Amino acid sequence: MTMIFGIPVQALMGQLLVGLINGSFYALLSLGLAVIFGLLRVINFAHGAQYMLGAFVALLLATHGGIGYWPALILAPLIVGLFGAVIERTMLSRLYSLDPLYGLLFTFGLALTIEGTFRYFFGASGSPYAAPPSLGGGVNLGFMFLPVYRGWVVVASLVVCLGIWLLIEKTKLGAYLRAATENPTLVQSFGVNVPLLLTLTYGLGAGLAGFAGVLAAPVYQVSPLMGSNLIIIVFAVVVIGGMGSILGAIVTGYLLGIAEGLTKVFYPEASNIVVFVIMAIVLILRPAGLFGKDV
Amino acid sequence: MAHGHTNTEARAAHPQASALKTGLLLTLLALLLAAPFFLYPIFLMKLLCFALFAAAFNLLLGYTGLLSFGHAAFFGGAAYFTGHAVKVWGFPPELGILLGMAGAAVLGLVMGLIAIRRQGIYFAMITLALSQMFFFFCVQSSFTHGEDGLQSIPRGHLFGFINLSDTTNMYFFVLAVFLIGMALIWRIVNSPFGMILKSIRENENRAISLGYSVARYKLAAFVMSATLTGMAGGLKALVFQFATLTDVTWQMSGEVILMTLLGGIGTLIGPVFGAGIVVTLQNYLATSDFPVTIITGVVFMACVLLFRRGLVGEFYASRIGRSLGFNPEK
Question: Where in the cell is it found (chain B) (predicted)?
């Protein structure tokens, strides 16, 4: 068996893949957080709950409506996004004139409510959600066995991250978004409907979390608490990357997933905390974050 | 949290208000002294522990304007430290609590040094992440006994001769520690140091331009808040005679924020009321199968949307409160 640094290459590659998959979810979620924060100046604590919501919508669509994976991959993010937009319009939008901390506290309460409700109706244990048959099985890459679904997760998240980045950097809508981030009053005076833009942005961010949830459903168990611990890691990712840059959020997400995977190989005891340790080191050496400009 | 609430304590120059306040405080004290003869003492002790926890947390949020999402690390951490010192090293209870406070202070210093490098919303996220790191440390270390927790911690003898296994003795010990903690917080808030903290809360840049080294003041406030939180945590370990992972989770950090928000950020007595309401609610709901999280979440959202001053703060700002002179300037 081939060895690298005294570790069998298969174990190394296996953990790297796990890391890459976790990184895909970190990237998708921190991207959504960064998009929302960029325009709304709100840290969306409910992001983990919205991710869980996406997985549950897919599960419920399958069990009650007989709707399969592929339609659910489109429908669930739309439903979660719509839910997010309604929350933004009716409640969150009242908090913009206040200290940003109130937005964090409000979305924290929202997360508790959503998770509590699902726990009440579905219990704390997880339910399995089957991957579509077209993505079943695996490919032998020679040095390791790659389950097709896991490869799909990495590809799908890369494509979506890239798509969102292009949307924000290269389209007219993206230009409005960036302009409204710089100076909302000025943009509104040019006749752009900024409140609508805010609603759309929050819906987009929530929808992204929902998409990540559907993607995650076949990999992890669908359970009410699947997002609550994840969100804290994603917060650390966002602190490391610096909230200023969309690309920074994506790159940091993947890098930290891989770092976590490697830690599992070389020093398993620390794999739970490696992201937080990296966060502490980055804060000491470069308080603004790797890609951030503001402190 | 620089606006939306005003500091009422320092400004109660109105003679009517101060007389009323003294009266209220004395009534409250009398109630606390008599309470164990009418209510379940363990419940009361739990309430006092959480009230002190929330008041210590409010020292940071209400008077310095820093939102920490990681105070569970100090609360649960001190519970472990005190429990370990009393159970394994055979410390007397008073020294055990002091050791728990010292441990929380060290933890606060380390976390504070890292977290004050960023402001506002980032500060909240960093403290949350660091406390989650401490949580994983507690899951894996041997002295915490992981999932089992530290069980059957002896209450011991206070000063070597007061037997704390007796519930009444224990209650008055808890009450005494609570009052000492509250007096310390009152002293800090109304000292020149406390005034500088408030100036940082109101306008950090102006405080910097006046020549105050804001980072050091923030760090000092953070460590003080952590230490007093440790006092509450160590006390709780002695009351319940166990220390478990529950007290280190981020949910616990959220709970103390709720208590403070519900009672009134930046009021001395608000967090005590907030803790009272939340603990009572939990006690009441513990027997039903309806999850507390839903109620907690809804109350959280309602507080943020509808009454950000909290119950006590809203009372101070109401017409009755103002006519009694609680809030003479606004």
Answer: Cell membrane
pLDDT of amino acid B4: 43
Structure tokens at A86: 């309604």
Residue A295 has pLDDT above 50, yes or no: no
How many CB atoms within 10 Å of residue A45? 27
Cβ contacts of B130 on chain A, cutoff 8 Å: 276, 280
A108 touches chain B (CB under 8 A): yes
How many angstroms away from the CA of B9 is the closest CA of chain A? 23
DSSP letter string over B39-106? S-HHHHHHHHHHHHHHHHHHHHHHHH----S-THHHHHHHHHHHHHHHHTS---HHHHHHHHHHHHHH
Please give the ipTM for the structure prediction: 0.85
**What's the pLDDT tens digit per position in A102-145?**
999 999 999 999 999 999 898 888 888 888 888 878 887 777 77
Interchain proximity A104–B121, CB inside 8 Å: yes
Per-residue exposure over A212-230, b if at least 16 CB sit within 10 Å of its own CB, e if not: bbbbbbbbbebbbbbbbeb
Interface residues from chain B to A (CB-CB < 8 Å): 1-4, 67, 114-115, 117-122, 124-126, 128-130, 132-133, 136-137, 139-140, 250, 254, 257, 261, 290-294, 296-301, 303-305, 308
Q: What percent of chain A has pLDDT over 90?
A: 46
Name the residue among A99, A243, A276 with its Cβ closest to that of B133.
A276
d(CA A9, CA A6): 9
Among A100, A72, A87, smallest CA distance to A215 is for A72
Using CA atoms, how far apart are residues B314 and B311, in angstroms rounded to an integer?
5
Tokens of A212: 């990540």
Confidence tier at B1 by pLDDT (50, 70, 90) = very low
Tokens read off for B153: 């911690």
The three-class DSSP label of residue B250 is: helix
Least confident of A134-138, A151-155, B84-88: A134-138
SS3 A127: strand
Alpha helices in chain B (DSSP H): 15-34, 41-64, 72-87, 93-115, 120-140, 167-189, 192-202, 204-209, 214-240, 250-263, 270-285, 292-305, 310-317, 319-323
Which residues of chain A from 56 to 75 reach within 8 Å of chain B, CB to CB? none
Amino acid at B196: I
By Cβ distance, the residue of A94, A104, A283 closest to B114 is A283
Cβ–Cβ contact A120 with B under 8 A: yes
Return the closest-CA partner of residue A157 out of A28, A33, A53.
Answer: A28
Rounded to the nearest 10 degrees, how much is the dihedral formed by the CA atoms of B305, B309, B314, B319?
A: -100
Interface contact flag, B297 A284, Cβ < 8 Å:
no
Token pair for B165:
């296994």
User: Residue ranges of the alpha helices (H) in B116-166?
Assistant: 120-140
Domain positions in chain A: 27-231
Place of tokens 């951490």: B77
**Residue corresponding to tokens 């980055």:** A282
At a CB cut-off of 8 Å and minimum separation 6, what does A162 contact? none
Q: Which of residues 5-44 of A touch B (CB under 8 A)?
A: 43
Is A110 within 8 Å of B301 (Cβ atoms)? yes
Structure tokens at A12: 């190394």
